[in-house]
UniProtKB/TrEMBL annotation:
The gene is cetZ. Involved in cell shape control. InterPro entries: CetZ, CetZ_C, FtsZ/CetZ, Tubulin/FtsZ-like_C, Tubulin/FtsZ_GTPase_sf, Tubulin_CS, Tubulin_FtsZ_GTPase. This is Tubulin-like protein CetZ. It comes from Haloarcula amylolytica JCM 13557. GO terms for molecular function: GTP binding; GTPase activity. One of its GO terms (biological process) is cell division. Residues 61-76 have a biased composition (Polar residues). Belongs to the CetZ family. PANTHER family: CELL DIVISION PROTEIN FTSZ-RELATED, TUBULIN-LIKE PROTEIN CETZ.
Amino acid sequence: MRVAAVGIGGAGGRIVERLWQDNERRETTYLGAACAVDTDTEALDELDALPDDRRHAFGLSETNGAGTNGDRTNGTAAIEDERLEVRRPIDQLVTSDIDALVLVAGLAGGTGSGATANIADALREIYTIPVYCLSVLPAGRDDEAAANTIQALRALEATVDGQILFDNEAWLGSGQTVETAAETLNETVVTRLGALFAAGEATASDAVGQSVVDASEIINTLSDSGFTTLGYASQDLQADDGGSDGTVIDQLKNRFLGDNSDDVDEIEAYNAVETTLRRAVRGKLTAQCELDSVDRALAVFAGPPAWLIRDAVTDGRRWLTEELQSPEVRSGDMPTPDRDTLSVLVVLSGVTELPRLVELKTLVDESE
Ligand SMILES: Nc1nc2c(ncn2[C@@H]2O[C@H](COP(=O)(O)OP(=O)(O)OP(=O)(O)O)[C@@H](O)[C@H]2O)c(=O)[nH]1
């Protein structure tokens, strides 16, 4: 699926910059356009990987170019006068081949919380393609951060076609702060988003004999009610199963040419697909949720074609349907002939029960 990504505020800009880098590294291009908008000019200056003309400051008269320091009202005031000015550079990037717009923001910050729904609204006035938001939830128990987040989630719920949640709290190691762990957090979320968007862009030549995910399946999964959370797991593949079989030449060939199809043991491949799927669903999600509150799901199996055993994918999908007790489960392949990794991305959508959201709401209620 080809997307245009717009980072709003500090976290939004940094994550979009990372998406930009991820997209450049992949064989499949999924990022049709990207830019960052912020009330903090210093934060924009630090986004080295994004070209200068993809970074735009707004709300300078409200914030003096120094951000809002967590003041949601200030973030809202900053965008209200400049909706059209902020929309214009985004407009210039959106071409007819873009399938969806993806806004990215940390909802605890004044800029991310105050401006994101407003920007979504401005885009919806002219675009008929879906508008999604990657909504980053704060770590910790700060009242103001919680209040900004809950208000932004509500405003976005009324505006966007779907929100993918990423919970910093769930991904911080003990003793870490968002500042010190930002690189790792952003890499985690971008690995999953990249896997999702690239899946819908697999080329036909890679896909012979495979059932490839297309953009409409991603859109049908993400859109509509409830939140989305992403699960992901990957496994390095060893075509010679431990190194005891196969000549050194074969092993070198497999390693450097990715030519492992001759050696793939079907049972080993079947087990690898099944195990990786279970790890993706039962491992840490971008935001933890009650699995029985999932309404729709999509599983994307990526790996060398010889490892994407049809029966394993079909059985995996059946297992997922039972696990989630959800009738609407889609699946597809993303053949990556030149890689020796198998990965599974699981998109869980229409989710209504997320413990972290309950925690944040309780914090807000207690502080009122
Ligand atoms: N995952 C991740 N979260 C971040 C990052 N930077 C900040 N955050 C989170 O996002 C929240 C908002 O921070 P920013 O995005 O810098 O704030 P902003 O939207 O620019 O708003 P103001 O600076 O208050 O005007 C923080 O409270 C953190 O929870 C980042 O690089 N990655």
